[in-house]
Specification:
Blueprint lengths: L9 E6 L6 H9 L22 E6 L1 E9 L5 E10 L5 E9 H11 L9 H7 L1 E3 L8 E8 L2 E7 L14 H11 L5 H8 L11 H7 L1
Parallel strand pairs: 1-8
Antiparallel strand pairs: 1-5, 2-5, 3-4, 6-7, 7-8
């Protein structure tokens, strides 16, 4: 009897932080230590490359908070829970399998175990699967080419946490990802007003990273 091959299902994973950098993101797919980080990622069980990738703009506010040990114990990126048309967060979305998406969520949450039904999340728009985890909240952002778009962020909102300056290595990882699609001036104007960067970076300090 022939083995029944499970049909792969695909979703868009939209990244707004360091995974906007393709090289860094592929460490979550294939495993390895991304440049500027101090942690070796385990990778996905299925290490197939994304079928597609494209830019995406989120209508949620980008901010930097907490202190990540793997990024020089400084701030990392989150998005607020409130959706408003006035917000503009640059994102890169990757078309990957649902299993890959789940494996990436596990890696972003330090290997915690959880159960999720993405179809249910599509209806509710948001699901907090771990209230103690930094990225324990999955958001449904819509559809593109027949596939749902998901991302993850914190279970708290922007007003509930202290903003923190990101490290040069972390911010450089994001900037290098943005450079594929945006000019240095566009990137500067985009980042300089974000909570955690505003008032924490001098103009020349951010310019030097560009």
């Amino acid at each position: 009897m022939e083995d029944i091959v499970k049909e792969k299902k695909y979703v868009w994973y939209a990244s707004y932080g360091s995974n906007i950098n393709n090289d860094r993101f592929l460490c979550y797919i294939k495993g390895g230590m991304p440049k500027g980080s101090s942690k070796i990622e385990t990778g996905c069980r299925d290490q197939s490359l994304p079928l597609k990738e494209s830019i995406h703009v989120m209508k949620h506010q980008l901010y930097f908070a907490k202190s990540s040990e793997k990024w020089n114990s400084q701030g990392v990126a989150f998005i607020g829970l409130k959706k408003e048309n006035s917000f503009m967060t640059y994102s890169k979305k990757y078309l990957i399998t649902t299993d890959q998406f789940m494996d990436i969520v596990v890696q972003e949450n330090n290997g915690i175990e959880f159960e999720l039904n993405l179809n249910v999340i599509k209806d509710s728009k948001s699901c907090v699967f771990n209230s103690q985890s930094w990225y324990g909240n999955i958001l449904y952002l819509g559809e593109d080419s027949g596939h749902p778009i998901f991302t993850f962020t914190a279970p708290w909102d922007i007003s509930e946490v202290e903003w923190k300056k990101p490290s040069h290595s972390y911010l450089s990882t994001i900037i290098n990802g943005l450079k594929k699609d945006y000019s240095a001036k566009e990137i500067y104007n985009y980042l300089i007003i974000k909570p955690g960067i505003k008032d924490n970076f001098r103009e020349e300090e951010l310019t030097d990273l560009l």
